[in-house]
Structure formats: C-alpha cells, structure tokens
Amino acid sequence: MAWQALADEAAIQEEEALGVQIGSHDIAICRLDGQIYAIHNICTHQYARLSDGYIEDGCIECPLHQGRFEIKTGAACGAPVSGTLRVYPVKVEEGKVWVELGD
Amino acid sequence: MSRIQHIVIVGAGQAGARAAQALRAADTDLQITLIGEETAPPYERPALSKAVLLGEASPDSALVETSTYWSTQRIDLRTGVRVEAIAPHEGYVQLADGSRLQGDQFLLTTGSRVRPLPCAPTPRAGVYYLRTLDDCARLSTEMQAGRSMVIIGGGFIGLEVASSACARGMQVSVLEREATLLARALPAALADQIAQLHRAKGVTLHTHAQVSSIEPTEDGLGVSAVRLTDGTRIAAEVVVIGIGIIPNTELAEAAGAQSADGVVVDAYGRTTVSGLWAAGDVTNHPNAVLGRRVRLESWQNAQNQAITVAQNMLLANPVAYAEVPWFWSDQHGVNIQVAGAWEPTAQTVWRGAPNAERALAFALVEGRVVCAVALNQGAEIRFAKKLIESKRVVSAEQLADPTLKLKELLAGPPSTSTH
C-alpha cells in the first residue's frame, strides 16, 4: 500500500498518540521531542491499543498492564511484555503525516 | 565488609528471578544461586487465573525467561530443591538432602502459599486451590462447558476464575463470606458494579455465605455440593477455593528474623538478621507513599521490590523501595486497576458516572489523592499514580471534571483549596 497520509500533523500533541486503523494495520502515531513516529498499535502481551496508553521517557505504555515499548525502535522495555513491535517509516509533508505501510 | 562473592536467593518465583537478573546486571562476576522448591523455572502468576487457565496462552508464556536463559546468564538455578534452614551468620543454607550451600549474603523470596479452608485443607478430587502452574494445569482440565463450579471466596482470584469458567461455558457460583465482594479493596459502588458484571454474565453470587462442608459424591471420587452453615446446599462438580494467601515466613523466623504479617524488612529490604534480606510477597515493608507498613500480593511488588533489594545487597548506600502500590485484574473483558490503597473512610470522588464498563474513582484524604480505582481506564491510572506520589492538594471538583485532563492537573499550579 506504500505511503499513505494517515493524519494531520497538528492533531498529534507532544507525548500523545493517535490510533489509526487502515486495512490490516493498526498504528499508533506518536510525537516525541517534536518528531513524529509510527509504531504497531497492539501490545504483544494481550489485546490492547497502545494509543489508549501513556507516553513517557520515549516509551509508550500499554493501558492494560503497563508494558512499555520504545517508540523509536519498537523494543519491549521489560515485563510483562517482550519482543519488538513493528516500526513504520514516517514523513511529514504539507501538514500531513505519511506512513509507509509496506505489504 | 569484604567483597560479596556469592549470593544465595531462596525462592525462585517472580521475585527471586528478577532479583537474580538485577544482581547479574550489577555484577558480572558475582556467583548467584537461585533455589526454588517447585520444579518449573521461574514464572509469573497473573495469567494462571486467566489466559493460561483458559488455554489461550501456553504455560511457557508465563515464564519469566526461557528455561535456557538462566545458564547463559551464569545464574545457578536449582529447581525442585527445598531449603530446610538458613544460617546467615554461619554463611550457609541447608538443603533437604542434608547438604549445605555456602553463601555470603542471602535473599529470601519465598513468597506465599494459599490459605487453607479448614474443612478442605488440601486439594482432593474435585477440590482445587490455584497458586502454581501445576494447580492451573489440573484445574484447567476440569473446566468443561456445562459443568458446575462453586468458587469459595469472592476476592480477585476467585472472581478471575469465575470469569474464566464463564468463558468456558460453565455454571458458576461464587460464595463470599462478607456482605459484599471486594469490600476491602474497592469503593462500595464499584464493588457493586463488579458484582453486577458477574451477574450479567450468569454468575450466581452468594454473600454472607459461610461454608460448613464440601460434600463428596457417593462413590467418594469427586464432589457433589458445597454446604453452607445455614443449611443451603449448592451443587458443584468442581470446587475452587480462593480465600487468600499466607506469607512463607518460616525460614526467616527460624533464622531469628522478626515476622509480623510477613517478614519484617526496612525500606531497603533488610530483615532484622544481618546478612539476610527479603523481597516480594513475603515481606512486610514500609511504604513511604502510604506512610505505613504493607504486605503486598502483587506482580508489581514481586518484580520491583525484588530488583531494588537485590541492587541494595551490593550497594554501600542502599536505595529505599517506595512505589505507589498498583495492581490489575481482568474479569469478563473488563480491566480493573487500583493504584494506592483504598481507604473506606476517605472522601470518594467519581470522575463521570460509573458503570460496569467504565468507571474512575479517587479516594481523597485532606485534599490529597491516596487511591484511584479504574474500570477500563488504565491510562488514567498512570496519572493517578503520579497524583498520589506528588501528594499534591487537588479539589474534588477538579478531579470529578472529565473535561479537565489529569495530566493538566499534575502540571498546573498546586491548588490551595481542599474543598
């Protein structure tokens, strides 16, 4: 599906996340230090949307059991979560957040 | 103090495992021995009443690490080994086979065991307690659609099993001794919402229910019913007992350590015996946030207190463990989270109208949040923890206003009003 415009950049506040579902993808678009990142939105532990969670110290935290993932890399930051979430390439053009979905 | 070369951890549950990892991270040369009585490698318990019990997740998914991990970290994990005694002054633990294992410092993470029901002190055919992976596997095979299950104890463990049994299509009854479920843990209105949630899913709740006996089948091979003291007979093919846990303090007591509802430790994890430390479920420890001593039976405490205490064992200047207590429960697809400790005498402030799918309540004491309870609002609990930790004075009106973000309440100037 290649690059898709998924959100208005202005809609994403610092240390907040916006959940976007498109096709089979569920993506959390986050802002950290002004930069926009996109990460797979479903926790590896149980079904929960990370965009309903909390961002601190560069990590997004699951609202169910407070498992944390590093937003830039998708890496789990310790129990109860493990593994790595997919991180999507992002670009911002003319106020829109574009995400490369791949297949 | 000469350099510590070998630390022996007694108890290979979640706390012992996290402590061992923290020790290894702090000192690559340290000899670490982790001794557990169960045969399974260290595992976490939350899923044992939920996904693993339902067969949705494998038992291996509950392991703290894969079974090969421990040797790669040069952590000497010895499972299926019972420790008979700890002698911190002499520097050894005595094992069940009579051998002694030398060590420089000792950490007790012996956890807790189920509280026995006097009329059914041990498991027998049809009667189950739920604490270990083995317990979980045995109970899971009994959970078949259409069968009847009676759960003795309307606490979190009993209610999670009720939720799982419902999902399996069983006919479920929960017996609670008190007038309401979860009376000590949650505000009454919220406990009532949880009760309604269970009833709506088909669970029959009996409160003020005192069990007098568990009746066997005629052939003696199973159970047929639970009898209450008022004579009520509730048919049951499977009985699950969840009436609390008891900290495993015996080894510490025998070693001379003070014990009072748990092994008494200071904020750093030191028992009253030099060279003997303790962490996790087994400890009775001071909590600076709550301003009193607590014994916590939570995933958070098992992990985080253990990590802090393990690090302290190697530090000249130890660090106090002082987190806002937090735990979660999942029942019928509803996520319940509690931060702090509920105080029935505190002012209860609701954020929006509570219902069985969504609710958020705060306990306010002198204008400070001391506890927050959320149904399906886990993200708010994160801010609630910070509010509790900050001891900041906030107004009930601000807390109750759902249009005012908790994040902003934390960031704004301190309120001077306590009304």
Helix content of chain A: under 10%
Number of strands of chain B: 26
CATH class of chain A: Mainly Beta
Strand order of the largest sheet of chain B: 3-2-1-7-19
**Under the CATH scheme, which architecture of the largest domain in chain B would be assigned?**
3-Layer(bba) Sandwich
Runs of chain B in which pLDDT lies below 50 for 5 or more consecutive residues are none
What's the SSE pattern of chain A?
EEEEEEEEEE
What is the total tally of β strands of chain A? Answer: 10
Number of helical elements of chain B: 11
Instruction: Enumerate the strands of the largest sheet of chain A in spatial order, edge to edge or round the barrel.
Output: 2-3-4-8
Principal-axes shape call of chain A: globular
Q: Would you tell me the structural class of the helices and strands of chain B?
A: alpha/beta
CATH topology of chain A: Rieske Iron-sulfur Protein
Intertermini distance of chain B: 53 Å
Proportion of residues in β-strands of chain A: 35-45%
Q: Which segments of chain A are poorly predicted (pLDDT under 50) over 5 or more consecutive residues?
A: none
Biggest interface, residues from each chain: A-B, 14 and 16 residues
Tell me what you see in this structure:
- The complex is a heterodimer of chains A (103) and B (419).
- Chain A is mainly β and 103 residues long.
- Chain A has no helices and 10 strands.
- Chain A has a 4-stranded antiparallel β-sheet with strand order 2-3-4-8, with no helix packed on it.
- Chain A is globular, with a radius of gyration of 13 Å.
- Chain B folds into 3 domains: 6-113 and 246-312, 3-Layer(bba) Sandwich (FAD/NAD(P)-binding domain); 127-241, FAD/NAD(P)-binding domain; 333-411, Enolase-like, domain 1 (2-Layer Sandwich).
- Chain B is globular, with a radius of gyration of 23 Å.
- With 419 residues, chain B is an alpha/beta fold.
- In chain B, α1 links the parallel β1 and β2 (31-35).
- The longest helix of chain B is centred in the last third of the chain and has 14 residues, at 299-312.
- The A-B interface holds A 46, 48, 52-54, 56, 61-66, 79-80 and B 18, 44, 46, 51, 64, 299, 303, 326, 328, 330, 335, 377-379, 382-383.
